Amino acid sequence: MHVQARVVDERGVVLARVDFLFDQGVIGEFDGRVKYSSHLRPGETSADVVFREKLREDALREAGWIVIRWTWAVLAHPDRLIQRIRRALDEAHRQQRPSRLWVPAA
């Protein structure tokens, strides 16, 4: 597992920096409320941030990644998080997608 890895497309363009990256083709993202209020750009609403995050996730999925998310509520029950990660890893194994590109955190 890698933390804060940068996912790139086939041209080397960075699609996103992700919270957790599993070599098997799974990305894990932690969602807290602060994420959607602290990333506001001038004139933006929280809805704009959520929409931008959705587009980012769409790009990751189109690049072949499986994206899973969790919140503090899930972290309160580690067994649920482990189960969610295992399901995603199993799905990635079944799909046997081509190699995905990423760069370790600097």
Q: How many beta strands in the DSSP annotation?
A: 5
Query: What string, H for helix and E for strand, traces the elements in order?
Result: EEEHHEHHE
SS-based structural class? alpha+beta
The N- and C-terminal alpha carbons lie at a distance of: 15 Å
Organism: Hoyosella subflava (strain DSM 45089 / JCM 17490 / NBRC 109087 / DQS3-9A1)
Protein name: DUF559 domain-containing protein
Descriptive report:
This is DUF559 domain-containing protein. It comes from Hoyosella subflava (strain DSM 45089 / JCM 17490 / NBRC 109087 / DQS3-9A1). This protein is α+β, with helices and mostly antiparallel strands. The chain has one domain. The protein is 42% helix and 27% strand. It has helices at residues 33-38, 46-62, 72-75, 78-95; strands at residues 2-8, 14-22, 26-30, 66-70, 101-103. Strands 4-3-2-1-5 form a five-stranded mixed beta sheet. Strand 2 (14-22) and strand 3 form a beta hairpin. The protein is globular and about 40 Å long. The model has no long low-confidence stretch (mean pLDDT 89).
State the main characteristics.
single chain, about 110 residues, alpha+beta, 5-stranded mixed beta sheet, 4 helices, 5 strands, about 40% helix, about 25% strand
Give a short summary of the structure.
This is DUF559 domain-containing protein. By secondary structure, this protein is an alpha+beta fold.
